[in-house]
Every structure is written in C-alpha cells, then in structure tokens.
Amino acid sequence: MVTTPVLPLEAASPAHICPFDQACSYLEAAGKELKLDQGSLEILSHPRKVVTVSIPVKLDNGEVRVLAGHRVQHSDILGPYKGGIRYHPAVTLREVSALAMLMTWKCALLGIPYGGAKGGIAIDPQLYSVGELERITRRYTSELIKDIGPSVDIPAPDMGTSAREMAWMMDTYSVNVGHAVPGVVTGKPLSVGGSLGREMATGRGVMIIVREALADQGKSLAGMRIVIQGFGNVGGAAAELLYKAGAKIIAVSTATGGVYYPTGLDIPALKTYAAVNRKSVVGFPQAAPISNADLLTLPCDVLIPAALENQITEENVNQVQAQMIAEAANGPITLEANQILEARGVTVLPDILANAGGVVVSYLEWVQGLSYLFWNEQRVNHEMEQLMVQAYHQVIQQSKLRQVNLRLAAYTLGVGRVAQALSDRGLYP
Ligand code: NAD
C-alpha cells in the first residue's frame, strides 16, 4: 500500500473521484504486477517538488485579484520535467499532482527522455480579457523562474492554454534571464521556434491509436461512427483528422453543450462555426442539440472523451454503448467505471498512450530547437507516428504477455522503465 502524500492547501475530493488517489491506485496496481519493492513505490508515489505561487493581477477595471498558480514536478528520473499548463476553474493541487504523475509514465511509455510535471491556475480563461491573461501568464512564469528551464522543466499547452500563452512564457523567461531561450516551452508559435505539426499532434496521435486498434479488430476508420466530447486543441484536431480518414463524427460537444447528426457532421464547417461562436458548437445548423450527459451514451463505434476527467463514472457507465473508448483527455474514466467496461469487453485505449502525440511532438520541437534545425511537417508527423505505433504495439504485446488490460499494460511499461532507472541511478543519501 503506497501512502498518499499530504498535499497542502485543500481538502481531498471524495475518494472515488480524487484524481491523485486514482493515479496512486494505478501506480499501485502496476507496482504489484511488476513486483516492485515498497521503497521504490513510495518514492514514485510522491511528487519530487510541489510549488504554489501567488499571482497578483490588476484587472482591466483596476481591481487587484490574487490567484494561486501551481506547478508539480513529479519525477525527473528519466530527464527534465515535462508537462502542460492548465487554465480551468476545476484546477486543484491534487488534480495537478495526478496529471504530473501521469506525465511521468506517459513519457517513459513513449521512450522519450523526460520526467513528468504539470501546472495550472484555477481560472476560466473565457472570463478574462487577452490583456489580463497575458499579465496572469507572465507573472505566473516570473514566479516560477527558478523552477523551469530547457534542461529543468519545460511547460507546454493544456486545457485553456495554447501557443499564445507559450509565447508569453518564453518571452517572460527570456527577458528575466537576459537572452532568448526558445527551449523553455514547447507548443510555441512557429515564429519563435515552434514545430510544424505541434498544433494537431495530440489529435493526430488519438487518430493513429484508434486506427491501429480498429485494424487489430479487422476494421478501418472509414464509416466508423465516432462521438467526441470536447472540441478544443485535442478534440477539434482528432475530429478533423478522423473526418478526413472517412469516419463519421456523429456528435461533438463543448462546455456549453453538444450537437448530434446521425449521418455525420460536416467537421470543417463545424470548426468554422465554432471559431466565430466563442468556441461553442451549440446552434450549428441542421444538427440536433444534445447534452453532454446524453452524448456520452449515444450508440456509436468509438467514443472519444477529449475534455475533462471523471466523465465516465459508475453512474453512467452502464448506459455507455461504444465498444471502443479512446481516452483523449487525461483520466476521463474512473477506476470503478474502467473495471465495469473491462468486464463488458469494451476496448479502452488508455490516456497515457492515446493522448501522447502532443508530448511526442513537444519532444521533437525541443530536439529541433536544441539542434537549431527545423524539419518539414511530413518529417515531424512521420517521426511521431513511428513512436506512437511502436508504443501501441508494445502495449498490446505487454497486455498479452501479462494477461492484463491495456491500461495496466501501459502502466507496467511506463512505471517499469522509471523504476528500472531509479534502481540504476540509486538513492542519493
Ligand atoms: P481545450 O481547452 O483546448 O479544449 C477543451 C474542450 O473541452 C473545449 O471544447 C471545451 O469547451 C470542452 N469542455 C470543457 N468542459 C466540458 C464539459 N463539461 N463537457 C464537454 N466539453 C467540455 O483543451 P485540450 O488541450 O483540448 O485538452 C483536453 C484534454 O486533453 C485535457 O484532459 C488535457 O489534459 C488533455 N490533453 C491535452 C493535450 C494537448 O496537447 N493540448 C495533450 C495531452 C492531453
């Protein structure tokens, strides 16, 4: 039994949905399968560093508000810390800690030389002006100046952030240290050293993993009925690429509600519509409105939750009709719901595999930046696809070898590699 670290500032959420307890349960299951010693499990269940900073910001109306910004560095056993920055009202230190741990296993699973980290601020970015968001991002970066860096900890976009915030972070860091440091963040705009292919990378990775899993079942993407929750960086890109591959995207949702069209939505038209409707798909002509709850239980071949965690729970899992679920979001299925889906024979493509395309291209961006060489998009996509397909086959092989589900197979690979490195490096007194 691993001891859950005491995280300051907030009470635990109810046990069944506490993201950090859930992350520790998966670690524990992997540790048991790998017969890891108790000491290694204890080390791996604790984040190495937890930072919370105050971010005073002057709003456009002159009022001053103080926000809390977190950065949790789970492990740097395999390389510099790596992980996104989330702006969302539901951000908590426990959630950030769970996501940081997930990043450690994800990077190890994909064979890229990074550790895991995550950051976040509990704000709804839609409620702030661009100027306010810039001041928040710059002050947050400045407060973290000693904790990040191209060989220390490299942030990237996550929910509520994008290339724009990464450019502000890169600029703030560079001004503070006195010279340009593009390698401090990934997911940057191309103009400051970003990589071609990064914007679509997580969605592309989701498409690749779904394609491979369907191929193993003797099916192809063409004509598959797909439902996607979330239409942002990840869900939007996955929808576009799956649509291009001939799949029918029959329903899509955003935070404000969803749309349903049983013969398949026109995804390029929906993207254009959302772009001019504050990123919402509600009211898209011809399609019927659908709530987020009903969207998850629609009859379909593949369900892709690409928004928040804990969307498929004990309460709704029995109504879920998809035979395949690709976790584009981090942690969208609770532990209990996952067990029920497994018993029903539903294929669950776990988050640390399905949504790893983003961190893979972040790594490729970092490598290009450090070597002052820039690749064309075809090369970036090709390198990413190779790593994704390789990881997929390793997970399938591990699942057969150990007779475990795909999530436990992915975890045993990720956790096993980090534990091996921990054992080889040894414990500094
Ligand atoms: P985003 O902010 O770009 O998009 C999130 C989408 O989810 C938006 O369309 C939003 O309207 C929608 N949404 C929010 N709350 C919702 C709700 N209650 N019901 C339905 N839809 C809702 O975020 P993103 O970057 O696309 O991230 C989505 C998920 O993917 C997160 O779990 C994130 O951790 C994970 N992820 C992102 C990346 C990346 O490269 N951006 C990489 C790996 C994993």
Automatic annotation (TrEMBL):
<dbReference type="InterPro" id="IPR033922">
    <property type="entry name" value="NAD_bind_Glu_DH"/>
</dbReference>
<dbReference type="InterPro" id="IPR033524">
    <property type="entry name" value="Glu/Leu/Phe/Val_DH_AS"/>
</dbReference>
<keyword id="KW-0547">Nucleotide-binding</keyword>
<feature type="site" description="Important for catalysis">
    <location>
        <position position="158"/>
    </location>
</feature>
<dbReference type="Pfam" id="PF00208">
    <property type="entry name" value="ELFV_dehydrog"/>
</dbReference>
<dbReference type="GO" id="GO:0004352">
    <property type="term" value="F:glutamate dehydrogenase (NAD+) activity"/>
</dbReference>
<feature type="binding site">
    <location>
        <position position="82"/>
    </location>
    <ligand>
        <name>substrate</name>
    </ligand>
</feature>
<keyword id="KW-0520">NAD</keyword>
<feature type="active site" description="Proton donor">
    <location>
        <position position="118"/>
    </location>
</feature>
<dbReference type="InterPro" id="IPR006095">
    <property type="entry name" value="Glu/Leu/Phe/Val/Trp_DH"/>
</dbReference>
<dbReference type="InterPro" id="IPR014362">
    <property type="entry name" value="Glu_DH"/>
</dbReference>
<keyword id="KW-0560">Oxidoreductase</keyword>
<dbReference type="InterPro" id="IPR006097">
    <property type="entry name" value="Glu/Leu/Phe/Val/Trp_DH_dimer"/>
</dbReference>
<dbReference type="InterPro" id="IPR036291">
    <property type="entry name" value="NAD(P)-bd_dom_sf"/>
</dbReference>
<comment type="similarity">
    <text>Belongs to the Glu/Leu/Phe/Val dehydrogenases family.</text>
</comment>
<dbReference type="GO" id="GO:0000166">
    <property type="term" value="F:nucleotide binding"/>
</dbReference>
<feature type="binding site">
    <location>
        <position position="362"/>
    </location>
    <ligand>
        <name>substrate</name>
    </ligand>
</feature>
<feature type="binding site">
    <location>
        <position position="202"/>
    </location>
    <ligand>
        <name>NAD(+)</name>
    </ligand>
</feature>
<dbReference type="InterPro" id="IPR006096">
    <property type="entry name" value="Glu/Leu/Phe/Val/Trp_DH_C"/>
</dbReference>
<feature type="binding site">
    <location>
        <position position="106"/>
    </location>
    <ligand>
        <name>substrate</name>
    </ligand>
</feature>
<dbReference type="InterPro" id="IPR046346">
    <property type="entry name" value="Aminoacid_DH-like_N_sf"/>
</dbReference>
<feature type="domain" description="Glutamate/phenylalanine/leucine/valine/L-tryptophan dehydrogenase C-terminal">
    <location>
        <begin position="195"/>
        <end position="426"/>
    </location>
</feature>
<dbReference type="Pfam" id="PF02812">
    <property type="entry name" value="ELFV_dehydrog_N"/>
</dbReference>
<protein>
    <recommendedName>
        <fullName>Glutamate dehydrogenase</fullName>
    </recommendedName>
</protein>
<feature type="binding site">
    <location>
        <position position="233"/>
    </location>
    <ligand>
        <name>NAD(+)</name>
    </ligand>
</feature>
<dbReference type="GO" id="GO:0006538">
    <property type="term" value="P:L-glutamate catabolic process"/>
</dbReference>
